[in-house]
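Quick one:
INPUT:
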């Protein structure tokens, strides 16, 4: 049996699966160690992928050659493009998924890589010598050695589950926690902390009266996450449902507050502010009589449903009594109660942008171990850790995305430069360049970069180049064509747009908010010219229209990128002594702790002021 590898990935969650797949695809002999090989990338909480900003991340993962987007499309139950009523910077794809099928599809992809091996076991310790990681030791006493180790422990490090006064050790309900690794890392000098997350109860759909619920269907013409043409959108969609709590439901829940580990001080971990438990919502928003919830299917071949927005650590009887007061839930049966879970994490300021730890060489962290929340954020970190572990093992440099290149770049820079004081969740508002980092152009931004390091395939790269050529042809045509009033006034009047009195460039007409290129396709002569463009797809049409309508905003952000990139080019020496700089004590402490690589990164550290940056620029001779 082989006990030596290039890379060992510990944990088979979303981060671990992306890390292992990327490293193996790039050519590293990789070992993936998982406690349960039937639960690769398990959807421990909500059976959905995407959403605001998260959907952009998944499209970026796909553009780079990762797998989450492809698997989501294959396991999709329902697809919706969120925020269509807003500008394109806010458009966010989201897919409800078949939980079981999602894990099955991940296993198929993982087992398709010849350079990826598997081991089902617990890792109880790391092998570290001279501040370098050399391998791992498992619960069975097996020692595996590698050039790099990627730790993706999720919620399993000293995980503890809470349901009222009942407390269980576990990383997920029914699964054992991981012990020993946190203690070893702390001894090695790492700082650790505790975080908390939660999950709602699951129900038997046969006991729900769906006639009393509000139906939420998927898009009429669903799109998909993957840019690959052979991956198809979901064909058969299942509905979700909207329901609401009531004062009676709140009253019953409040009766359990005295037994809530969240309020009695038993739970010490920091919870996610943007995804609070139902008891947190009721206490924080005591003036509200109702909260909106979403009932979502768990799969095609199951009656199990998930109640989004109702995560809870309240006692089982309180959850059950309150749920039965919700309209449509009068006779509901619970498969499993909601519960809270506490787990260890390591403040991510202890990392480089490559996801490698600063204290131990060749040791990488990815996922919830870094204080993030969400499958998408975890998968992105895993992908980047897998890429960089491979590149380092073959002395090929590093792969880092900047804030103006990807939401993944924003995510990692936020973690490394600012740290976290609560579970980190990505939002579009976290990016300074939202109009540039859209979900539609992720392939244009990232596929060539990934292709150059060998992760994105030839087919993926060629598909991206064909799409970009079609967009160029579309923009040239629309900027070149002039249309007369008799050609287009009938259409303009039909959409409530001002009629023409003389010829105008088609680009001027497309820039109007009420006009769409898809509609113009039906205008005979003009439409035929557009339809003749080679490799014309809905994606080409959408991206071309965005570029035309939002040209001013795009240009403004590109100028901002150029301005800020100057600070990113000013490198700070590794041995720079901040104590000799005439800056605030807080800035000295923060900069010494994080040791930013550039002035740009230093400027984003909390507690470092523009005045401090000016002093540093002078000291660096700029």
């Amino acid at each position: 049996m082989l006990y030596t590898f290039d890379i060992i990935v510990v944990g088979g969650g979303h981060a671990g699966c992306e890390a292992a797949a990327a490293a193996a695809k790039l050519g590293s002999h990789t070992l993936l160690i998982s406690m349960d090989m039937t639960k690769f990338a398990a959807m421990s909480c909500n059976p959905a992928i995407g959403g605001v900003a998260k959907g952009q991340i998944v499209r970026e993962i796909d553009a780079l050659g990762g797998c989450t987007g492809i698997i989501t499309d294959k396991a999709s139950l329902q697809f919706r493009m969120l925020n269509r009523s807003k500008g394109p910077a806010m458009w966010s794809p989201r897919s409800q998924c078949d939980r079981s099928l999602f894990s099955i599809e991940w296993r198929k992809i993982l087992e398709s890589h010849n350079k990826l091996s598997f081991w089902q076991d617990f890792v109880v310790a790391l092998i570290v010598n001279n501040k370098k990681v050399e391998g791992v030791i498992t619960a069975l006493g097996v020692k595996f050695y590698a050039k790099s180790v990627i730790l993706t422990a999720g919620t399993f490090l000293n995980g503890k589950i809470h349901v009222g006064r009942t407390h269980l050790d576990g990383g997920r309900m029914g699964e054992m926690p991981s012990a020993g690794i946190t203690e070893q890392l702390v001894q090695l000098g790492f700082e650790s902390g505790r975080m908390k997350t939660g999950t709602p109860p699951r129900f038997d759909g046969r006991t729900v009266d769906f006639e009393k619920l509000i139906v939420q269907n998927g898009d009429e013409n669903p799109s998909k996450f993957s840019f690959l043409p052979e991956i198809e959108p979901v064909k058969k969609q299942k509905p979700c449902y909207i329901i609401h709590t009531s004062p009676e439901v709140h009253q019953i829940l409040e009766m359990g507050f005295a037994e809530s580990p969240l309020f009695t001080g038993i739970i010490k971990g920091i919870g996610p502010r943007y995804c609070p438990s139902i008891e947190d919502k009721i206490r924080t928003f005591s003036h509200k009589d109702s909260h909106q919830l979403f009932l979502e299917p768990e799969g095609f071949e199951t009656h199990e449903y998930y109640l989004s927005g109702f995560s809870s650590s309240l006692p089982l009887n309180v959850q059950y009594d309150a749920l039965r007061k919700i309209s449509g839930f009068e006779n509901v049966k619970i498969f499993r109660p909601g519960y809270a879970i506490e787990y260890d994490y390591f403040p991510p300021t202890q990392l480089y942008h490559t996801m490698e730890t600063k204290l131990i060489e060749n040791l990488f962290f990815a996922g919830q171990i870094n204080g993030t929340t969400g499958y998408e954020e975890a998968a992105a970190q895993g992908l980047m850790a897998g890429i960089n572990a491979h590149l380092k093992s073959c002395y090929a440099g590093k792969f880092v995305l900047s804030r103006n290149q990807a939401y993944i770049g924003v995510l990692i820079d936020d973690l490394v430069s600012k740290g976290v004081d609560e579970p980190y969740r990505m939002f579009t508002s976290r990016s300074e360049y939202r109009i540039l980092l859209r979900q539609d152009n992720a392939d244009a931004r990232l596929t060539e970069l990934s292709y150059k390091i060998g992760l994105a395939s030839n087919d993926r790269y060629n598909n991206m180049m064909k799409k970009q050529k079609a967009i160029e042809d579309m923009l040239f045509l629309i900027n070149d064509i002039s249309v007369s009033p008799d050609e287009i006034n009938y259409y303009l009047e039909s959409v409530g747009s001002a009629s023409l009195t003389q010829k105008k460039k088609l680009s001027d007409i497309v820039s109007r908010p009420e006009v769409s290129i898809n509609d113009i396709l039906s205008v005979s002569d003009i439409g035929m010219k557009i339809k003749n463009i080679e490799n014309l797809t809905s994606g080409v049409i959408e991206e071309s229209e965005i570029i035309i309508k939002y040209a001013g905003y795009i240009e403004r952000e590109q100028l901002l990128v150029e301005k800020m990139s100057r600070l990113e080019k000013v490198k700070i020496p590794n041995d720079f002594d901040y104590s000799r700089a005439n800056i605030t004590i807080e800035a000295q402490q923060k900069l010494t702790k994080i040791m930013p690589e550039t002035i740009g990164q230093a400027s984003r550290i909390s507690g470092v002021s523009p005045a401090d940056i000016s002093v540093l620029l002078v000291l660096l001779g700029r």
